[in-house]
Amino acid sequence: MPKLKEKLPKKHFLNTRQQLYKKHRIEGYSKYTSARKAGYSHAYATQAKKIENGINMDYFLEKAGLTDTFLADYIYKGLDAMKVISANIIYGDADSKTNDFIEVPDWPSRHKFLETVLKLQHKIIDKPIIQQSIHLTSIKQMVENVADFRKSRTVSSGMAREPKSIS
Fold it and tell me: Can you give the pTM of this predicted structure?
C-alpha cells in the first residue's frame, strides 16, 4: 500500500461541491446521498465513483482514521455486541424481589455485523435468487395460453369440443 503522502499531490485544491461530498462521506453517508447533499445532479450522483476518483477519497478516509485495521477491529468488536436489559430477580420462595440490569448477547447486532463482513468478502451477494423478469414472462405466457385455450373451445349443444391441434 502506498504511503499517504504519495497519494495526494502537494497542491490539490477541491471545489466546494467536492469538499461537501468529502465531508458527508466522512460523516458516514452513502456515495449517492453524499453527492446529492453536495449539490450534484441525480445523474452524476449515480456515478459517484467519478467524484471519489477526482478527490482521492481513500486518502481522506485514512486521514480521518478510517483505516482498514480500524474497520476490522470495529467489526470484530461488533461480533461480540452485548445489550443491557432489566430483569426482575426473585429470591427464595418469592419473598424478596429486586430489579436489576444484566448484559445479554445482542444477536440482531451481531448478525448485522457478520452479514456486513460476509458481503465485504463477497460471500453474500445482494441480488435476488429468483429472476422475476423470467418468471413474469412465463406467467404471462401461461395466462395467454389459457386465454387461447378458452377461445378455441366452443360449446355446442352442451358439450365442449376438443381444441384445435397445433401443427
Answer: 0.43
Whether 56 and 94 map to the same domain: the answer is no
Report angle CA 78, 57, 45 to the nearest 5 degrees.
95
pLDDT exceeds cutoff 80 at 134: no
Please tell me whether residues 58 and 111 are part of one structural domain. no
52-91 confidence digits (pLDDT tens): 777 777 777 788 787 888 888 888 888 899 999 988 877 7
What CA–CA distance (Å, rounded) separates 90 from 100?
10
DSSP for 84-115, please give it. EEEEEEEETTTTEEEEEEEEEE-HHHHHHHHH
CA distance 116 to 124: 9
